[in-house]
Amino acid sequence: MARAELMDFDQALELFEPVIGLEVHVELNTTTKMFSSAPNPANSEFHGAEPNTLVSPVCLGLPGSLPVVNGDAVRKSISLGLALGCSIAPSSRFARKNYFYPDLAKNYQISQYDEPIAFDGELEVEIEGGKTFMIPIERAHMEEDAGKLTHVGGATGRIQGAEYSLVDYNRAGVPLVEIVTRPIFGAEADAPALAKAYVATIRDIALALGISEARMERGNLRCDANVSLRPRGHEKLGTRTETKNVNSFRSIERAVRYEIQRQAAILANGGTITQETRHWHEDTGATSAGRPKSDADDYRYFPEPDLVPVVPSAELIDELRAALPEPPAARRRRLKGEWGFTDLEFQDVANSGLLNEVAETVAAGASPASARKWWTGELTRLANASERDVAELATPAQVAELAALVDAGTLTDRLARQVLEGVVAGEGSPQEIVDARGLAVVSDDGALIAAIDQALASQPDVLAKIRDGKVQAAGAVIGAVMKAMQGKADAARVRELVLERAAAVQ
Amino acid sequence: MSDELIRLSAAELGEKLAAGDVSSVEATRAHLDRIAAVDGAVHAFLHVEGERALETAADLDRRRAAGEALGPLAGVPIAIKDVLVTKGMPSTSGSRILEGWIPPYDATPVTKVREAGLIPLGKTNMDEFAMGSSTEHSAYGPTHNPWDLDRIPGGSGGGSAASVAAFEAPLALGSDTGGSIRQPAHVTGTVGVKPTYGAVSRYGSIALASSLDQIGPVTRTVLDAALLHDVIAGHDPLDSTSLPMAWPSMADAVRRADVSGLRIGVIKELDGAGFQPGVRQRFHEALELLERGGAEIVEVSAPHFEYSIAAYYLILPAEASSNLAKFDSVRFGLRVTPDGAGTVEQVMSATREAGFGPEVKRRIILGTYALSAGYYDAYYGSAQKVRTLVQRDFDAAFAKVDVLASPTAPTTAFKFGEKLADPVSMYLNDIATIPANLAGVPGISVPTGLAPEDGLPVGIQFLAPAREDARLYNVGGALEQLLVAEWGGPLLGRAPDLTAHELSATEEGAL
Amino acid sequence: MSEISAEQVAHLANLARIALTDEEIGHLTTELAQIMHAVEKVSEVATPDVPPTSHPIPMQNVYRDDVVGNTLTAEEALSGAPESDGSRFVVTAILGEEQ
């Protein structure tokens, strides 16, 4: 549907109530895969391995191979379930979901069907602006990821028109937790922002638990968005679509918004919505129809005979519950209060995904204000310029050290920015860079006075103005002195000394 | 010398090897010679190792000469059912779709057999993916029963049973999903054991029905079966359903065999209509012999066994339809590209059409049906409930008796083609063996003689509670001792001379 | 319950990815009906009060430590492949032209 044919968002909201449902897949960062002892590419240690080098007979579905459950993946799944406010099933089991696809080595996926490990949860999610929603979680279940297909031939590298495809099974068997919400009502115009904030909250939980790298761009975190509209005043839910291939937080918001506008336009024109899978296209900002749901979706689930039930002890669940981190929404409230930020300042940090960095920097001794300033300011600018992840550029300890040097007067802001460049370039700690590059502020008044006297001597007209009480004229001298000192001077101190010397010089 | 070597039991051969009376190379060569002489007529093997087996044997002889401590079967040759994957040896599971596939790993029972110093001779023929009771469903042609080459050797493990019956190997590995070890033993006059589910690792066994499959020994004597059982059983962390327990020695159970005071339950539902007279006659004679040996014979009822076949032929196809989905032309095995190339879906479908035989297709379609939406509860779900009822029957019976007994199969070996056209009557062959697989309990088939009406071998089946495999070796060992004493020698001593037959077959072929 | 049509068999064959010939579909339609007739007797005793059994020997909580074990090389992984490009498996186009 062309953009022009979409219904205006506000108008769509007047006519229809959007109902959304979200399915999020979280790749666990265990050392090995869900059912095989092959290395897990979702663990950063094995990221980027050559194709088909992280595989065992189990990952390839070789005849005779058998799955064995990774105990650590089960513990991480339970922790995630608990963090989502779910009940943990006293007994759950695996099932086979049967369908043929070349990236699915056994042509069945081991998943959980009628007995998920976690169910009936609730998650508090805060959207931009501070409004919060309770998201009802239906279930979270364990399953295995499929391999990766690369389509060759054809113009676009897409599946359409490809001549052949290449299969890499490194990802086959990566442990996944699929989190499914119940239908979410009442978000209204906030539905797109809520969808985004929900996935961001799951990211925060996964990171706080240390169970996933949780990088959307790497596919550690994937979201399928179900959207349906129901006409105002109606009871019955509308037909839903499921949008896949949404690979960034921003895309989630855009895709949900797009589907609301698209479906509204169709319904308002008397059309009907087809229950189907749709694909999000980042480039065009639109969804396109995929396969309609059909009887080909007869997955013939049955209990996985090669695996036995998962029956976690009450002790294990208690132990994992006791180790849970603070829930993200509560943590945000606490940090905002502790830091004394305005709404705007806090949003600035939170929306940049820098809460952890700022918190750790404060914990390392920096003031909240300076921690915020360096992360959302200069470091973010450097990250954008180099197209890198800001969290990769510096450690909270380095930023705290930098802030301490500024507070101590060793560095001016300008010098500190130079030091940061050195940190980003991997030259060492801020103090090491100060020493190596000789960037410390010149606090020796003798050196400053010599430079000031020289500047005053070479600008007698300025000196005269200062003596006449035109103090603002001192700026020219200050500038010359700062230049002479190569910026390594505290401008305020220079100003004090300039006024002193102007009065003193005969 | 060569003929003497092949007629020794594995236990006897092991003793001679240990004593230095014979080398493993000699023993292996004797069996390879025998295979060369008779396998043209029997067709028990799909692959023979030849030189490589001799190298392995030579290595074993060196280790023995160096004074290494070796197990009782070290140096003894063994045949391996083609359902087990073997590193460096083709593994086809009797199917065209895996023709030429050489796995990059060994099945756990194969690893254990190698570690115990046994010498793999090759891979034995079977019904395709172990679906059948006659080996007629092998993609590579049937195996012939050494007692009568016009008859089936049982199935699916007809190759393993025929290889030991024809003295091509003293020992073989089999797999039993509904009787594929026990029924071939019954029709070839050999011994076959299906251990408790989970006693032997399934890792590397090309799955037919995961909740029913179990690997076990195929031999000529009960002691040989016990010795091999002791080698292959034990916990395997690569199989989640492998039982984490220590097992008593089965060989000790045979050596101490004593049935005095043993309560043997005769399953009345498996002792009547549908069973050939000669099969029943030998069965009851064996029971009388045991009774004279001090056992107590009691009749027990297992009212739900009659539903076993129906449940089995829902559970097996359902699990098999999923297990066999991996044969899709992408990672291994056959690829058939239809005219005009086509999509990967068309390539998969054409490959599976060309690579699977009719029985495999029949069961995949049946299983797909039993699991499909709207039918699951009526078919697969109901079959799982019957499984519960069959287990309850076993529980009730084992509350009264120590072991259960029945004829192993309703008839002696039938002729090729006799039941091929009628799948339902073929399925009835497994009536006595299937309940054990549904319940996971162990079973053994021991030869009881020849049916008077056709002179073909018949066997008796004993079943024990789960984890009580040693009871089978006790009763089986005792019965074997009594029968051999009565016969004055092993039953297989009466089997026809295959080398003579081979000669005439060759002559006929030349005409 | 055991009424099975040729269309149903064709649909099952499609689900199971087997390109059955019309002749095979014909045979299987007859055979399947016979077999289903024989096996549907399970419903006679499968009453609601009977729990299903999926595993013959009940077990629970069988786990593996999260430690890297035997891994194949790419060469071993691809050794049985009908077609590969040296590092990945090759399959023909996934979608047809009409899609």
From TrEMBL, chain C:
Please give the name of this protein. Answer: Aspartyl/glutamyl-tRNA(Asn/Gln) amidotransferase subunit C
Read off the InterPro entries from this record: Asp/Glu-ADT_sf_sub_c (IPR036113), GatC (IPR003837)
What family, per the record? Answer: Belongs to the GatC family.
Provide the reaction this enzyme catalyses: L-glutamyl-tRNA(Gln) + L-glutamine + ATP + H2O = L-glutaminyl-tRNA(Gln) + L-glutamate + ADP + phosphate + H(+); L-aspartyl-tRNA(Asn) + L-glutamine + ATP + H2O = L-asparaginyl-tRNA(Asn) + L-glutamate + ADP + phosphate + 2 H(+)
Taxonomic lineage is: Bacteria, Bacillati, Actinomycetota, Actinomycetes, Micrococcales
Chain's role: Allows the formation of correctly charged Asn-tRNA(Asn) or Gln-tRNA(Gln) through the transamidation of misacylated Asp-tRNA(Asn) or Glu-tRNA(Gln) in organisms which lack either or both of asparaginyl-tRNA or glutaminyl-tRNA synthetases. The reaction takes place in the presence of glutamine and ATP through an activated phospho-Asp-tRNA(Asn) or phospho-Glu-tRNA(Gln).
Give yes or no: UniProt keyword Protein biosynthesis. Answer: yes
Quote any Pfam family the record assigns. GatC
UniProt keywords (A-Z) are: ATP-binding, Ligase, Nucleotide-binding, Protein biosynthesis
Class of enzymatic activity (EC top level) = ligase
Q: What is its EC number?
A: 6.3.5.-
